[in-house]
Amino acid sequence: FQLKPLQALHSQPRFSTSLLIMDADNSSKASDDERADYKRARVEGSESRRRSSQRENTHWAVSEDFEESESSEASDDEDEERFMGEFSTAEVSLARWVRQHPDKAPKTSSTNPHTRLALLARSAAGRAHLQTGLDKMLRVPLSHRNAHLCECMATHMEWLGRTTEALELARVAAARAATGERQWLYEKLAMQCAFDRAHAEVDALSRPVPPRASVPRVAASELSVQQFFTEYACARRPVIITGLPLPAACEHTPSPPSTPSWTLAHLSRVAGDCSVRLQSKITGSAEWASLEQQAHPTKLSSFFSSLEKNEGSTDGYLFDWSLPLYCPTLASEFQVPQYFQSNFLQRTPPGSLYRDSWPSLFVGGAAAGGGLHVDAFGSNFWMALLQGHKRWVFFHPDDTALLYPRLERSTDPVFMVDPHHPDESAYPLFNYARASECVLQAGEVLFVPAGSAHVVANLDLTIAVSGNFIDRSNFDLAKVCGDCVCSDCVRVCV
Questions:
Q1: I need a surface site. Which of 67, 125, 158, 268 has the fewest CB within 10 A?
Q2: What is the pLDDT of the chain when averaged over all its residues?
Q3: Helices 124-138/113-122 angle, 10° precision
């Protein structure tokens, strides 16, 4: 068996536990699908192991604890059927358990099944249930631990924080019967272990707490495209660029010639009939940036009207709404700043992933914003603020491990720490992360380098336009972080 490279696994399919959580009638179907997938992978895995045993070299270095089970013959179909019925992954086990004990369900405003499951796993009752299940699996002799059982044990250990042991079990599971789910689990655990090792290294070094730096402001008249590329993009330094021609969001402030002012009234006239699912920030969310979609769609005209009536204080956030895809008229009114126009994504063939995703629109009231996050697939990011003020905090790309990332549903990390009000007792290494901060003002454009974790909060009603992009400065990083995104970029650039 030959494991796929880690960077190639971001789009691998994963089993869904949402059916088990949200709909009891579907639980048997999910179990049947899982069993069928397991049996199919088991046949393929057996043939793969027979071929692999004939090779002199192996891509696996299994620890001594598992050598006995690795060398033994696979259990027969009857044993495997028994294991499939008796043991489940941590996610499936928790979902079934909470349906039987609804009083153990977490108290949260979130309706997202993944967030509710993650909160349950972090609770004392959830951890006790996982430990009981793991203890039962550990009593199975080594010689009888097939791929399914190793996978189940790995997921339980992952949720219980025993990531090193979980990684070894995931490795054995994938080696014995390869599935996309098991390869993805191995990748995720390998990355989590790397973060955990970085914690230990910093703890041992006891480096001094760095002061927070300010993000520099540079006038566009004094910054050439080449200077920006060399001094900021390639150096992975954030910068605020002033004096660029942007649409104004106030009737009394002049916009560039032939460009209308992007007031709420203008946005409502052009895009008011569009229905969107606004985002809300949920504490403890398992989703990227702690943002979750609201249950029901909203007309943009109603959302903009509510913002005006409530002076910017309203629930919901229009977050990263693609203008080329959903409102081409607004997209045609905005000119992407010259510094970000060398975007490899837009040179890819029609229909390629993210080719037409940006620029995008952000509109939200005071206190709206996302949680701490890193932009996906190693992309650079820019934001042009047309109205209001946004508070930004950035962290050095090399210090991501100090922000306590957790890989829950994907290889895009979720962060539990609140950078504005960190709990130093729970996250003692957070203060050692190098940070910079700024308040972005209307008429300014901010550049956020690839790999830089950041958190944003609106200080008042804001309207902004943004984009993610790949160019020569971050192409190598994007190739590693976004294999499926960059396949078309590679064909364009080489």
A1: 67
A2: 82
A3: 80
Which whole number is the average pLDDT over 145-157?
95
The pLDDT value given to residue 350: 87
- Give one word for 106, left, alpha or beta, with left for phi > 0 and alpha for psi -120 to 50: beta
Residue with tokens 């730096």: 213
Position 35 confidence tier, pLDDT thresholds 50, 70, 90 = very low
> For residue 440, how many other CB atoms are within 10 A of its CB?
23
Q: How many whole angstroms separate alpha carbon 428 and alpha carbon 408?
A: 22
Helix (H) or strand (E) holding 200: helix 180-205
Task: Write the Ramachandran bin of 313: left for phi over 0, alpha for psi from -120 to 50, otherwise beta.
Answer: beta
Instruction: Return the closest-CA partner of residue 3 out of 12, 274, 233.
Output: 12
Q: How many helices (H) and strands (E) does the chain have?
A: 17, 17
Give the residue carrying structure tokens 């960190």: 422
CB within 8 Å of 413: residues ≥ 6 apart: 195, 373, 374, 400, 405, 406, 407
Task: Give yes or no for residue 54 having a pLDDT over 60.
Answer: no
Which of 24-38, 53-67, 204-218, 325-339 shows the lowest per-residue confidence on average (mean pLDDT)? Answer: 53-67
Q: Which residue from 218, 49, 228 is spatially nearest to 147, judged by alpha carbons?
A: 49
Average pLDDT over residues 38-63: 35
Q: Residue 448 and residue 240: Cα distance in Å, rounded?
A: 9
